[in-house]
Amino acid sequence: MRDITAQGQTVEEAVQNALNELKLERNQVEVEVMDEGKKGIFGLGSRLAMVKVIEKENGTQIATDYILDIAEKMGAKISIDVEEEGKDIKIQISGENLGVLIGKHGQTLNSLQYLTQLIANKQTEQFKNILVNVGDYRERRYETLSGLAKKMGDKAVKTRRAVHLEPMPSFERKIIHAILSENTKVETHSEGRDPYRYIVIKPAK
């Protein structure tokens, strides 16, 4: 984390001077007012305001540190690559003994992703959408979900009855909804509350 002491005619001006120097936005820093300054009379006895501006912890660094710590405790030797685009952070994990980070049907990975995002956002007070992938699991999972969506869509059409899928995280439900949105013979919606929210596929009216 970086910090800087800056001065200005007012506290607000001092803060802005510090932000300009650090090239950061106001919500990325914490401000400690060291001296509110004094206007004086006709310039006599005046004193500049002084602040200490401290950069908040970076959400990406918090996320990667957390994942590295969890992986070490679970016995997985990993390396991490990160891609950032706007509010999206994609964390790609590679290494050894990766299965322990994925778990059955990706449940461990989904929990890791959820907790990583929760901790990073809470500590920085900035919302980031974090996606964690281990090896090519997300790609393989997409193919699995795609096949499941088409199969259950066909079942709903054939039986003329609603089909209920197992609970899954929101980003996986979005995949199902997106794939079946191209099938004019079915309709989809989600029911229940997370983490037990699930998709219902039914014949189109």
TrEMBL record:
It comes from the Bacteria. NCBIfam families: Jag_EloR (NF041568). It holds the Pfam family Jag_N. The keyword Cell wall biogenesis/degradation applies. GO terms for biological process: cell wall organization; peptidoglycan biosynthetic process; regulation of cell shape. SMART domains: Jag_N (SM01245), R3H (SM00393). It comes from Listeria fleischmannii 1991. Residues 139-205 form the R3H domain. One of its GO terms (cellular component) is cytoplasm. This is RNA-binding protein KhpB. CDD domains: KH-II_Jag, R3H_jag. Has an N-terminal Jag-N domain and 2 RNA-binding domains (KH and R3H). The keyword 4Fe-4S does not apply. It is found in: Cytoplasm. A probable RNA chaperone. Forms a complex with KhpA which binds to cellular RNA and controls its expression. Plays a role in peptidoglycan (PG) homeostasis and cell length regulation. Forms a complex with KhpA. GO terms for molecular function: RNA binding. Keywords: Cell shape, Cell wall biogenesis/degradation, Chaperone, Coiled coil, Cytoplasm, RNA-binding. Belongs to the KhpB RNA-binding protein family. Residues 12-39 form a coiled coil.
